[in-house]
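Complex record, two chains
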Amino acid sequence: MKNLSLAAFAATMLISASASAHISVASGPGFANVSQKITFGITHGCNGADTLKIKVSIPAGVTGVRALYSDFGKPSVEKDASNNVTAVTWQKADADLQAEDIGFYELTIRARLPNAPFSRLQFNVEQTCRTAAGVVEVTHWDQPPGATTGEPAPLVTVVPARQPGWNKYVLPANIAAADVPMYFGDALIAWRGAAAYSSNANTVAQITATPGVTMLGGDLAANDEIWVRY
Amino acid sequence: MRALTLAAALVFAGACGDNVTGEQPPPKDAPTPDAAPDAPPPGALGPCLDHPTNLPQPGGQLPCELIPPNAAFAR
């Protein structure tokens, strides 16, 4: 029963985190060392004003960045001396600005994430809004998880590449118990030894009903061997 | 409880077994037992590895498909 309560708590925390995010990563977990699309969801504008411009800063280690065209029109990029893209900006034409904040926008890049599975990658975002009267407001979504001031930056959860069926991973670093749902929440089941985790309540019930098997609890340690079924 | 589980597992293993009642000669081209690759003795790895199945398990236990291939615990 205690284990069921823990699983329910973890699921609630996941839902709460998603519901409170204003600019978030809408494309789900990202795969380490793989080129893929990363989509940012712009849930709302600024105090009733529509979003005019979004600038996404590219964190170190993210390479091969290409920006997709969007409802905002053509993207523009900034590059460093090594020709790596360091920021992508999408800006609407003035004629496309809505008189009020009614839109939900998705903006996408394609990029290769660093080979750092079981980590989170912070993308700082600058959101510029403008009212019909021409008042401009800028919001910086650049705070790390747990910050008590400012606005939270969108985060990509980096997970290792996977295949349907069983996958064996050796953890490169510790994973706090509270972060287990973040990395394994979309798996059918994850095992360390004879302890198992699932975000699915029915599977949790099966885990607790199976002799010799316990619910996976506590922190995971570096070099732990984890078997995960997707 | 463990004895009940073991009994249920044995019943389950039996249910998944071969239903052929009479002895039949092997097909002409079938490999002989001596030609089969080395395998653990029957029952040594538990019912999930002896008779893999996705069917529900007795007592609401985990189905075999959710048991990892290296499971060290008794199943």
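Note: The interface with chain B takes residues 166, 188-189, 191, 193-194, 196, 203, 205-207, 209-213, 227, 229 of chain A (CB under 8 Å).
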